[in-house]
Each structure stands twice: as structure tokens, then as C-alpha cells.
Amino acid sequence: MDTTPLPDDRTPIDLPKTASHRARRIAREAEGIAKARASVAAGRVVDEAEVDAWIDSIGSDHELPTPYSGR
Q1: What whole-number distance in Å separates Cα of residue 12 and Cα of residue 20?
Q2: What is the pLDDT of residue 47?
Q3: How far apart are CA 35 and CA 46, in angstroms?
């Protein structure tokens, strides 16, 4: 495993130690991507402006509820 320090002294992420670990990680990531794409295709998305407004409201006196797609 490469343990070379990153430029800003962050701890390097734990990388898979064997080819089988890497293959399982890649399979999990591919499954997650496929699920996300299916959600988008089904219309389960939230408008960017709603998300931006929600983020901007966090910590204010008038926080907005978490936006959902409604589907």
C-alpha cells in the first residue's frame, strides 16, 4: 500500500489490499452507480435550486425542510 503523505498532510485513504478486495469494492461501486442511474431515469431527482436554497437556509432563523423528489 502506498503510504506517501499527501501534500496537505492528510492521512491517505485505505486502499484495497488485494485484488479480490479491489474487485469487491468496484462491484459495490458499480451497483451503487446503477441504482443512482435508475433513480434518475425514474425521475427521482431534486431541483438544483431547491437544494441550493435548502443549503443556504441551514443555520438561519428560517431553515427549510430537506428537499425530496416527491416520487
Answers
A1: 20
A2: 92
A3: 16
First to last CA, the chain: 43
pLDDT per residue as tens digits for the range 4-47: 665 565 556 666 678 898 899 999 999 999 999 999 999 999 99
5 by Cβ neighbours in 10 Å (0-12 / 13-18 / 19+) ranks as exposed
pLDDT value for 70: 73
All cell numbers assigned to 3: 503510504
Contact 39, 68 (CB under 8 A): no
CA distance linking residue 34 with residue 14, whole number of Å: 24
